[in-house]
Specification:
Layout: H1 3-21, E1 25-38, H2 47-52, E2 54-65, H3 75-79, E3 80-94, H4 98-101, H5 110-114, E4 115-130, H6 135-139, E5 145-164, E6 193-211, E7 214-225, E8 248-259
Antiparallel strand pairs: 1-2, 1-8, 2-3, 3-4, 4-5, 5-6, 6-7, 7-8
């Protein structure tokens, strides 16, 4: 299961080695911030769900900067960076929203109210950052800003668990009815499992030139997974159309970046 992560890690090591050999500048840093998990827990587009199912993430990042030691100043070298990342995030999950909060429905949804879960991910990936501001202009101006958009991919190793205060799941007395129906090759619509999942990332952010050799970074990034089991819940999509989307999460990151070469 870890083979894709290992292969990707060796690929990043190879990229770093090549960049050193060619004199391309590199930057390293740390990022951290809250992670809002969108899943089968709660309701989509519900503020209580988005806020309640928020965890925390931390990671290390590495940038390849093509503009340094490059006198040609091509459009690509002056506006693009390649960012690699190894990160960890964890979120505790519960059901929120009007269906579980209504006093009239408490008896009908007690199984949902008693259910909770946890999703833990180790992410490894890369993305391409584009900034409309020339990189050399930004690097030579302490106190300046460089907005950017990004697009990339990640491979993640996830561990998920689902529990209930009513007792072991898988019984009518403890489990909401739709999670007792087989789904996507599993015995039930819930699963405690480990696995590897791919995801696409897209973000928007800004770099702030703190000193000649360091930046601050702030960004918002969407991460959409190729699986709907990352949260441990996946009701049968043929029967329950409201759960047709795969899991995803939104990161709100702050970071500190240091230039290894300039």
């Amino acid at each position: 299961m870890l083979k894709p992560i290992i292969l990707t890690l060796f690929a990043f090591i190879g990229i770093t080695t090549v960049s050193k050999a060619q004199g391309i500048a590199q930057e390293v840093g740390i990022i951290f911030g809250p992670v809002s998990f969108q899943s089968d827990y709660g309701e989509r587009n519900d503020m209580d769900t988005n806020v309640g199912n928020t965890g925390f993430g931390v990671g290390i990042v590495h940038f390849i900067n093509f503009s340094a030691n490059n006198n040609r100043e091509s459009f690509f070298s002056e506006h693009f960076k390649v960012r690699s990342e190894l990160s960890f995030n964890q979120t505790n999950l519960e059901h929120f929203g009007k269906w579980v909060e209504s006093e009239k429905r408490k008896g009908l949804v007690r199984h949902l109210r008693a259910m909770s879960g946890k999703s833990t991910l180790v992410n490894l990936g890369s993305q391409l950052e584009f900034s409309p501001i020339k990189i050399h202009d930004f690097e030579n101006s302490v106190g300046s800003f460089s907005p950017y958009v990004s697009l990339g991919f990640q491979v993640s190793y996830y561990t998920t668990s689902v529990t209930s205060q009513l007792g072991p799941l898988g019984l009518p007395a403890t489990t909401f009815a739709k999670y007792l129906i087989p789904s996507d090759g599993r015995q039930y619509g819930f699963s405690n499992e480990n696995g590897v999942v791919l995801s696409v990332t897209a973000g928007v952010g800004v770099h702030y030139k703190l000193t000649e050799m360091s930046d601050l970074m702030f960004d918002i990034r969407y991460q959409g997974f190729s699986s709907d089991w990352v949260d441990g819940l996946n009701p049968n999509k043929d029967l329950f159309k409201e759960n047709k989307r795969n899991d995803s999460q939104v990161w709100f990151n702050a970071g500190y970046i240091y230039y290894l070469e300039f």
